[in-house]
Amino acid sequence: MTSYFVIVGHQDNPIFELDLSRTQDSGGANESRRHLNQFVAHASLDLVDEAKWQSGALYLKTVDRFNELIVTAFVTASQMRFLLVHDSSVRGQESIRAFFNDVYELFIKAILNPFYVPNTYIVSNNFKKKVQIVAKKHGVAL
Amino acid sequence: MSRQYGSKSTLEGRKASVSGELFTLTYGALVAQLVRDYESDDEINKQLDKMGYNIGVRLIEDFLARSPEVGRCHDLKTTADILTKQGFKTFLGIVPVIANWSPKGDEFSLILESNPLTDFVELPDDHPNLLYSNIICGVIRGALEMVQLDVEVWFVQDTLKGDDTAEIRVRFKKKLEDAVPAGED
Amino acid sequence: MVAYNLYIFDRNCSCLFYRQWAKVKECGISPEEERKLLYGMVYSLKSLLSRLSPVSTRDGFIGYSTDKYKLHIYETPTGTKFILNTDHKAGDLQEMLQHIYTKIYVEYVIKNPHYKLGTTIDSQLFVKELDNYIQSKPFFTK
Fold first, then answer.
1. CB contact under 8 A, A115 and B120
2. How far is the alpha carbon of B121 from chain A, nearest alpha carbon, in Å?
3. Record: contact A114-B29, CB cut-off 8 A
4. Which GO BP terms apply (chain B) (predicted)?
């Protein structure tokens, strides 16, 4: 079961990463799964950039698939890309859309923090906690 | 937060108002720049206090011009009342609660349940001693000095550091007198 | 009524501003001496008045009048003093001095970031506004 959320910045750099899967995997398997998620997310970026011009909406739905993994994307007005890499155990386009919208709101608040330098990694624990809460709320965290 | 210029004489009666977010972000940018420019938190706090002081000594005139009914205060209780119910209300849109009077009546606390300066703010971990809103202390000190009250003002606790409320302590030091002209006593 | 001249003092007894409109007689001393003398007199009168007051120790000195001229003083809680000399027929001018303080001094001097507190006021805009205001009064004669 996989659910991995990442925000990607303007230079394809990760701004924020969060593994939302609950897992009993051992350390090594965990590590390789993490790398796979990053890899799948990264590979989908071109497709995200393509999809974002074909849709006026921020929410782009499913943009890519890799084996059983599905990549769903959301692009903010400032061209920050929110990606969720998940398998079929995360159900419902609507709940993912609601999750992205809530994270978008949290994200705006986080970048309004005067100490945050735009396009750098968000280190705030507070932000992380809040993302975890909305992920649970919308059934995106497993 | 909105500022309104009522008088006709001021730039053709222009009404200027600034959104609260812009104000908060402007202050945030200022503090963030200070954090980049100065090495130690103490130095940043000092700079904020100094800026506040320079604002305070002018702001008090604007305040008195708006509220001509406010005369000279003759005890610290009245001063605290006017400071919170009128000063803070006019310029920050909040009314702090006055609490914790010292037995001698020369010290009190201002409890700020909300602080418009700190919306969105999270302190960076490497600045544990930064007093983000220290400018307020300077403003109070500057403004009261102009009405002949020498006071000491400092932050006791701050919501940004995980406390429930922000608390500013004000201690009365002495009353300042008008300068005596040369040749008089 | 005739307005002769106006002084503004701060509480450190420095004269921040002087303007004359219809002063006819010279005092025969240097302007600095004259200002010092005036401040000294106001200061002494204030302390005498509060000492001799039968009702309260607070002074409420608002001016004096001779059979030729009248001196009006308006003092703000910050210790700034506005002193205006007029002929003796003038009525109570506290409101007028208050207007000069709130609508002209604060607006054009205090709110000017280039003005350093406690220094001589050399703003032409302030002088212009002040002249306009004084001259707009029906009683003003040159």
1. no
2. 5
3. yes
4. Golgi vesicle transport
Tokens for B14, please give them: 């222009």
Backbone angles phi, psi at B135, to 5 degrees: -60, -30
Into how many domains does chain B fold? Answer: 1
Is B124 inside any structural domain? yes
Residues of A (91-110) whose Cβ lies below 8 Å from B: 109
**What pLDDT does C136 receive?**
86
Chosen for mutation from B119, B122, B123, B132 (greatest number of chain A CBs closer than 10 Å) is B122
Chain A residue closest to B125 (CA)?
A: A124
Q: In angstroms, rounded to a whole number, what is the distance separating the alpha carbons of residues C128 and C123?
A: 9
Kindly report the CATH number assigned to the domain that includes residue A73.
3.30.450.70
- Share the mean pLDDT of chain B: 87
Residue B36 class from Cβ within 10 Å (0-12 exposed, 13-18 middle, 19+ buried)? exposed
Residue A62: beta bridge partners? A72
ipTM greater than 0.85: no
Average pLDDT of chain A is 88
Minimal CA separation from B62 to chain C, in Å: 6
Q: Does residue C55 sit within a domain?
A: yes
pTM of the model: 0.83
Longest dimension (CA), chain C: 45
Q: Which two tokens stand for residue B63?
A: 């305040």
Structure tokens at B40: 């130690």
**Is B31 in CB contact (< 8 Å) with chain A?**
yes
**How far, in Å, CA of B95 to CA of B1, rounded?**
13
Is B34 part of a structural domain of the chain? Answer: no
Q: Which of A109, A97, A35, A95 has the alpha carbon at shortest distance from A66?
A: A35
Report yes or no: A80 and A9 within 8 Å, Cβ to Cβ: yes
Number of domains in chain C: 1
Q: Report the number of distinct structural domains present in chain A.
A: 1
pLDDT digits over B71-105, tens only?
777 789 999 999 999 999 989 999 999 999 999 99
Minimal Cβ distance to C98: which of B68, B74, B183: B68
Question: Tens place of pLDDT for every residue, chain A, 142 residues?
Answer: 788 999 999 999 999 999 888 765 666 777 788 889 899 999 999 999 888 888 888 898 888 888 889 999 999 999 999 999 998 877 788 899 999 999 999 999 999 999 999 999 999 989 999 999 999 999 888 7
Domain that holds residue A104: 3-138
With an 8 Å Cβ cutoff, is B22 touching chain A? Answer: no
User: Which residue in chain A has the smallest CA separation from B27?
Assistant: A114
CA distance A100 to chain B (A): 20
